[in-house]
Amino acid sequence: MNYWLMKSEPEVFSYADLEKAPQQTTFWDNIRNYQARNFLRDEIKVGDLVFFYHSNAQPSAIVGIAKVVQQASVDPSQFDKKSDYYDPKATQEKPIWYGVHIQAQKALQRPVSLEEIKKHLLLKNMMLVQRGRLSVSPVSVKEWETIVQLAGRSR
DNA sequence: GCCAACGTTGGC
DNA sequence: GCCAACGTTGGC
Q1: At a CB cut-off of 8 Å and minimum separation 6, what does A20 contact?
Q2: I need a labelling partner for A60 at 20 to 30 A (CA). Which of A21, A113, A115, A135 fits?
Q3: What is the DSSP letter of A128?
Q4: What is the pLDDT of residue A155?
């Protein structure tokens, strides 16, 4: 079982939106970055846990926990000429882009902000910080536990 | 295969 | 809204 962090702009799709979705589940799609795609397609398994991170937010922060409930499937928006995420290089025989299904588990007792993560000795080397623009990144066990503990404490 | 130009992400 | 960082594209 592995831990991950996934980013979403709350204006587009927030953790609250995930909680309100049918079965509290959504297809995590429209990822168009090869490194993120490789994680989604090859490494993320059912049962893995995910920090749900709000980017472009005030403040940007980890706000909740989700669980992977179905592993990689082909992202249909790559074939849809009307979609913003249409990719002319993708074919039904050779799809390029994938997504996974995630289900809301619980909101953190309080958000853990990027600012706090950058300041924390055990968190400042997170891939989230090092590779700022990657929308899916792995989280170590230590990082996971540290963030869960932080969220359980008032600051 | 190099690398300049261009596009996107996302913090601020 | 700006712009730095960095991934992608395409000419050569």
Answers
A1: none
A2: A21
A3: H
A4: 63
